[in-house]
Specification:
Elements (H helix, E strand, L loop, with lengths): L11 E6 L9 E7 L2 E7 L17 H5 L9 E3 L8 E3 L2 H19 L4 E5 L14 H7 L3 E3 L5 H11 L15 E5 L3 H4 L1 H12 L3 E5 L5 H5 L2 E3 L6 H14 L5 H7 E2 L1 H8 L4 H8 L3 H13 L3 E5 L9 H14 L9 E3 L10 H5 L10 E3 L3 H6 L10 E5 L3 H4 L3 H8 L5 E6 L11 E4 L8 E3 L6 E5 L12 H11 L11 H8 L12 H7 L1 E3 L23 E2 L13 H4 L28 H6 L2 E4 L15 H7 L3 E4 L1 H6 L7 E6 L2 E9 L7 E3 L36 E6 L2
Parallel strand pairs: 6-15, 7-14, 8-9, 8-12, 9-10, 11-21, 12-13, 15-16, 16-17, 22-26, 23-25
Antiparallel strand pairs: 1-2, 2-3, 4-5, 4-17, 18-19, 19-20, 22-27, 23-26, 24-25, 24-27
Helix pairs in contact: 4-13, 8-11, 8-12, 8-13
The chain binds ligand MGD (2 copies) and molybdenum atom (MO).
């Protein structure tokens, strides 16, 4: 039995929290009868959730009670990838895993074991870092997880420090809202109410995106931009703002450093040049710059996609400099919003235990899984065992062909903890069943608002599933680790993981959370919250560092994604001033490649999926259809492609098949194929990550999903 078994009961309503890796972290009400979830709905009392969920979560009970859910441990009986498994007991599964590991450790050392995880569930207890203490104790290879926003975090922190930024609820006070590479209506839906409220009060909403996505359709102004050229646009805006005297000189003098240098840098971006780089008409760039500077308070909401090209980090640097130049931070609703995760006083080190990492332990970046498994990356110790939880690498990481080839290795002992038999789980030697949020106790931070949320178990644990916390307790016990770290109940873990004495937690208790399910951090209310009205930036200088003082130390990945201390800048040169780096796969940087592969592919989030989650659920599949690719009518006509045709999208890295959607919602030269579809369910057994590159962006070892060239042709 898990240590925290929930009570069973007759019909009742439980306050839960959405577990997903999404900025919204909704508070949910779960209707339960005789141990079954009848329905879930958004909590009407929660100021951000406002009583609504989304196309993924409206019928979460279908996922929880799906007949396809994994209910007990299983052992592979067919060839790898065949999906043939037989039931086994937990006892046998744990014995087999730990016996194999002990043998591998004896022969190759513990670094031959590679843990692999991301944010299948976002809870503080069962999420990103839940296996770290165990694997650090074991001495396994450290997985560097730079899946999402890592380059953005590096660039942002270099400029303003780990600031929570603008309260998303303060957007109602904004006059000018720039959604920059952020498809709010699909990926951050509950923020839209507030943006809409501002719009209704007269604010102008701008979307800067190569695709006319759902959000762009509701905006006042959609500015299509060539992918990966956003830094040039931001620098061009600065140049205009400075040249036309639209700067807030008092703010700049008091609260920034490096203005003169930045001014000189911005002068290198005259509007004609910027227009040529970005594909945006000169008059539009001028209008954007002038309106942005003079409509105060103005706010920029950056999406994750803004980091996804060769110069992603410097792009975020440029965007984060903009608000200080125009004094946007002076009032509530002005500034920039990246990840308010920084506001939550989570004691990450208490969860991860980086103090258990032996100096010199190998680090493998998770994007490089395919290379690490197939030997195309030099390794002194081979990877002999892979342990996957909270992630589905076959679908979500680039180099799909290599990942699949690596997973097919007979000598690789793979264990996958999952809800479903995903593309990755199909390759496991042992599959372990995981609980869903409705079966577990959890406490949630948010990366899209300022509320701490509690999830209380609504139904009993299904089948023989275990929580991730319990999984690592069991593994620790079997490996003979008797540290108190592995002896705690989930509630004790929650008490240890949050700094309840932090100023932002004043007046907040677990008892209160159990009653209401959510609570706002102890910060000023949204109509008063202007965190940098008088500077107070969390940088070494305490100012907004237009010229970064820490760039000299080189590139770095924030500790949340890599574990360990802050002191890990790698010395690679980083320009202390923001600048534009052309996408690697562009006519500008590689004309020969662009000659062969003229189309720039984007693979943003699917509206109906949560990364690869729900891409096996009938309801969401009905809405999403099969893997599609959107192509401009001119590009389609030039290739004899008509709507509905099955096409092949390819480059030197791989290929996948998709159904063509012909639309001018994408610019000429751009194609868009949403990510998330499962490979095993797709034509040709591949999806969009078959053509994507593992090359990192300039900062934070971020991925470059918007920096890939392809060609498209009719399928044979
Ligand atoms: N429905 C749904 N919601 C989700 C998720 C999901 O899978 N489905 N995933 C969650 C997760 S993990 C994340 S990180 C967030 C991400 O949410 P977002 O930050 O919104 O990220 P994306 O959907 O990847 O991309 C947003 C937009 O950026 C555009 N874009 C791509 N490249 C560029 C570029 O170079 N410049 C500009 N200006 N625009 C560009 C794309 O066309 C797209 O419209 O969403 C979360 N919410
Ligand atoms: N081409 C392209 N690729 C991308 C992106 C993109 O925009 N384009 N986005 C990137 C981004 S932003 C992100 S965040 C990553 C997401 O990468 P992942 O976090 O790996 O995404 P998911 O596909 O949601 O996979 C999570 C898996 O965890 C499982 N899971 C859920 N809850 C639990 C649990 O409690 N226990 C266990 N053991 N398992 C659980 C789910 O069933 C699911 O299969 O993908 C990245 N990949
Ligand atoms: Mo993400």
């Amino acid at each position: 039995m898990p240590l925290d078994a929930p009570p069973s009961a007759a019909r009742r309503t439980i306050i839960a929290a959405c577990p997903h890796d999404c900025p919204d972290t909704c508070s949910m009400l779960v209707e339960v009868e005789n141990g079954r979830a009848l329905s879930v709905r958004g909590n009407p009392d929660h100021p951000f959730t406002r009583g609504g969920l989304c196309v993924k979560m409206n019928h979460y009970e279908e996922r929880v009670h799906s007949p396809e859910r994994l209910m007990y441990p299983m052992r592979r009986v067919g060839p790898k990838g065949s999906g043939q498994f037989e039931r086994m007991s937990w006892e046998d599964a744990l014995t087999e895993i730990t016996t194999k590991w002990k043998k591998i450790i004896a022969e190759h050392g513990p670094e031959a074991i590679l843990p692999y995880s991301y944010l299948g569930t976002e809870g503080i207890l069962n999420g990103l870092n839940c296996g770290d203490a165990f694997f650090n104790k074991l001495g396994a290879t450290i997985s560097e997880r730079t899946f999402c926003d890592s380059g953005s975090c590096t660039g942002y922190i270099m400029t303003v420090g780990p600031s929570a930024g603008v309260d998303p609820e303060s957007f109602i006070h904004s006059k000018y809202i720039v959604l920059w590479a952020c498809n709010t209506v699909s990926t951050n839906l509950h923020h839209w109410h507030l943006i809409k409220e501002a719009q209704d009060r007269g604010a102008k909403v701008i979307v800067i995106d190569p695709v006319k996505n759902r959000t762009a359709k509701l905006a006042d102004w959609h500015i299509p931009i060539r992918p990966g050229t956003d830094a040039a646009l931001a620098l061009g805006m600065m140049n205009i703002i400075i040249a036309e005297g639209l700067t807030d000189d008092d703010y700049i003098a008091k609260y920034t450093v490096g203005y003169d240098e930045l001014k000189a840098r911005a002068a290198e971006y005259p509007v004609e040049k910027v227009s040529q780089i970005t594909g945006i008409p000169v008059a539009d760039i001028q209008k954007l710059a002038r309106e942005y500077a003079t409509s105060q308070p103005s706010v920029i909401r950056i999406g994750v996609a803004v980091e996804r090209h060769a110069g992603g980090g410097q792009t975020v640097r440029a965007l984060t400099c903009l608000p200080a130049l125009v004094g946007a931070w002076r009032k509530p609703g002005g500034g920039i919003l990246q990840l308010p995760v920084w506001a939550f006083p989570v004691k990450w080190d208490a969860l991860m235990r980086p103090d258990w990492i032996k100096p010199g332990t190998r680090v493998i970046n998770q994007w490089q899984l395919g290379a690490a498994l197939t030997g195309s990356m030099p390794l002194t110790t081979p990877v002999k065992s892979l342990f996957v939880y909270n992630s589905n690498p076959v679908v979500v990481i680039p180099d799909q062909d290599k990942v699949l080839a690596g997973l097919a290795r007979e000598d690789l002992f793979t264990v996958v903890s999952e809800h479903f038999l995903t593309d990755t789980a199909r390759y496991a030697d042992i599959v372990l069943p995981a609980t869903t949020q409705l079966e577990q106790f959890e406490i949630m931070f948010s990366w899209g608002h300022f509320y701490l949320t509690l999830n209380q178990p609504a139904i009993p644990i299904q089948g023989e599933c275990v929580t991730n916390t319990e999984l690592f307790r069991r593994l620790a016990k079997r490996m003979g680790f008797d540290d108190p770290q592995f002896q705690r109940t989930d509630e004790q873990m929650a008490m240890d993981a949050v700094d309840w004495a932090a100023p932002t937690m004043q007046g907040i208790t677990m008892e209160q959370l159990k009653k209401t399910g959510w609570v706002r951090l102890n910060l000023p209310t949204a109509d008063k919250y202007a965190p940098h009205a008088e500077g107070g930036f969390l940088t070494p200088s305490g100012k907004c560092e237009l010229k970064s003082s820490i760039a000299a130390g080189g590139n770095f990945v924030v500790p949340l994604f890599r574990q360990g201390s802050n002191d890990h800048q790698d010395g690679t040169p980083v320009d202390p001033l923001p600048h534009y780096i052309p996408p690697r796969e562009s006519r500008e940087a590689n004309a020969a490649l662009a000659g062969r592969y003229p189309l720039n592919i984007l693979s943003p989030k699917a509206h109906a999926f949560l990364n690869s989650g729900y891409a096996n659920m009938e309801r969401q599949l009905k809405q999403a259809g099969e893997q599609n690719v959107v192509i401009h009518p001119d590009d389609a006509a030039a290739r004899g492609i008509t709507a509905g045709a099955v096409v092949e999208v390819f480059n030197d890295r791989g290929k996948f098949q998709a159904v063509a959607e012909v639309s001018d919602e994408v610019a000429r030269g751009v194609v868009m194929a949403p990510m998330g579809h499962w490979a095993a369910r797709s034509k040709g057994g591949r999806t969009v990550n078959a053509v994507n590159s593992v090359t990192f962006a300039d900062m934070g070892r971020a991925p470059t999903f918007s920096d890939n060239l392809v060609e498209v042709r009719l399928s044979q």
